[in-house]
TrEMBL record:
Phylogenetic classification of the source organism: Bacteria, Pseudomonadati, Pseudomonadota, Alphaproteobacteria, Sphingomonadales
A cellular component annotation (GO) from this entry: plasma membrane
Protein name per Swiss-Prot or TrEMBL: Uncharacterized protein
Lipid bilayer topology: Multi-pass membrane protein
Pfam families: ABC_membrane (PF00664), ABC_tran (PF00005)
Stretches that traverse the bilayer: 136-158, 164-190, 251-270, 276-296
Domain ABC transmembrane type-1: 137-405
Domain ABC transporter: 452-688
UniProt region (Disordered), positions on chain: 680-705
Localization of this protein: Cell membrane
Amino acid sequence: MNGADIERAMANFARATGKPLAPQWNAELREVELAEGVDALPGMVAALGWEPARRVSGRPRPDQFPLLAHDPGSGWAVVQQWDDSESMALVGERASLPYHEDLHFFTIDLPDPLSSDADRAISVFWRAIKRRKQPLIMAGIATVFANLLTLATSLYSMQLYDRVIPLASFDTLFVLTAGVAFALTLDLCLRSLRAILIEREAQDIDAEVSEFFFARAQAIRLDARPPGIGTMAAQLRGQEQIRQVLSSGSLFMLADLPFALLFIAVIAMIGGKLALVPIISLPLAIIFAMILSRIIRKGTDRAQVSGNRKNGMLVEALDATETVKANRGGWFMMGRWNRLVREIHHYEDPVKRASAVASSLFSTLQQAAYVAIMGWGAYLAANGQITTGALLACSIIAGRINGPLVAQLPNLIVQWGYARSSLQALDGILKLPLDPATSAGALRPDTLSGAYAIRDAVFAYPATQRPAAEIETLQISPGEKIAVVGGIGSGKSTLLKLLSGLYSPQHGTVLLGGLDLGQVAEDVARRHIGYVAQDARLVNGTLRDNLAMGLGDVGDEDIMEVARSTRLDTMIAARSEGLALQIQEGGRGLSGGQRSLVGIHRLLLARPDIWLLDEPTSSLDQATETAALQAIDDALADDNIMVMVTHKLQLLPRFTRVIAMANGKIVRDGPTQDVLRELLPPRPGGARSSPEGTVTTSRAGGKIS
Ligand SMILES: Nc1ncnc2c1ncn2[C@@H]1O[C@H](COP(=O)(O)OP(=O)(O)OP(=O)(O)O)[C@@H](O)[C@H]1O
């Protein structure tokens, strides 16, 4: 019974429950010493920061499986179901576990950042807030206390005017002041505690919510992603705005609203008819607030949309600086930028005007309520209907009703207007379809290999009418090495993405080993299907990070061994930082050829069952290309499938079969020799010319020239 034992059981449990664990999920366990036996589980769960495991007592019922089981004799395992009345089938092992009294069973909610039954963004925030009861309770207590304190200070003033001053009763003054001082100190402590707690929890909520949206954005199906990446990034950042509004002190002011009724009742008790002033002014403020929120709604929505587009344009302009500069496109971009800025101002202007007018209106309302209380109160006091102290107390309490709450309403409404627009944008992102890994019914086979079978597959990019790929039928058997050729825009890359499962056809099916790729869990598909994109992009980090990304424990020796075969070692040796070479966003810092080589290198480290390469050698020199292709050939197992898109005719003899595409359709498909015979014009004297040059297929009939 050691750490590895329980880790293996946990991996089996994850498999059985259909929730993938992160690649390095157990990295933090290396630092901790797990207890022996059944006590290992709580330690492990605590170290990983997961929800505690729940014990299942007695004989497990059929609906409780799968369960983690601990047997004092054989250690940890995962039980799947009852085999018979006395033994249970184990997950990942062929044996069964006999039931006995010393077995302990547990279940655990594995973390899944994407799990949410919420289809509205606001539910994600509420779920995170509701999970943290402590600050909410504290905020509630502090609110109650702050409001009671208002009553205490106003009654204190009343006593001073009515009892202490007329009678010079200093003992009463001392006792009252001590009482109020104590209440003030308590209030200070509670408020500070509330602020600290809210700030701490706000960070946790922020982490939870941003993890959810980040994971969600990453899990969106590639073929469903909106084209404006910068715009989408701005929409995702809108969550910060929402979080700020939700955790801002001004929102807690709303909790004061019910106390307004209590205050009005107290004013009625001590000031009689004076209660009419807040009875009129408070609803008036609320009606003004509702009107303001209606007026600004359209403006905030449109300003937010334009703001997000502006962010998208900024990202695009910075990303494409080279092209923009080289083509003297600076003025063109500047024109677009200025138009967007003007558009935002155009939409924001009415919001600003309405909020400025509302602020003045609210401030006038406050002053008017004060004057009404004091003026009418003075009249009542002069007539002896209320005391001077009662008048003062009423003015303090009425100030509390109309004061902070009403003063902050316009600002809060504008903030909420923008937050609401951000929520709408996030709702839109939540509606985008996800990779199959997230659905409970995703297939999780142990291996994903065998033959490909595409039938009547039609794929069109979003917002385009014409299909980019229409494949009536395509069979690929294990062991085949296929080249895909065709003119630009003929659908080669799209076919490769369909084979990778990154794109799903809108009609028809892509089967691999008899399984519909659209139903296979994303992590399983990525483990078995290797794909090098045409535009191999790298991410910010070291060269080592980029080479070993998603591959778990890959050592430097493995990396260097592969590097020797691809000639990447020459580049690594030429840089003093070696594998620690810092790569900037998008792979800046490496040449185009070096970036391609990193993509090929990654695949060689991953050793998938299916190798899909989109023009991987188009930017390599001849010697490096030969070395890289040889390394791939050497790494391919007999039953592996390789499909490579290429424009280079001279590479075709390396493949067993060639598929030629035109207009999204397969127009030639056959053994390399047969297709080459059709491609190459016969030389004078009967011999065929050597395969050189690039391959293009004309639109009509797919003739290759
Ligand atoms: N993201 C996209 N959105 C809309 N249309 C697209 C998108 N990507 C490609 N297309 C269109 O789909 C068709 C097929 O594109 P694809 O990238 O598969 O061609 P290709 O044969 O790989 O071309 P190339 O040899 O130039 O790389 C083209 O007409 C292209 O304009």
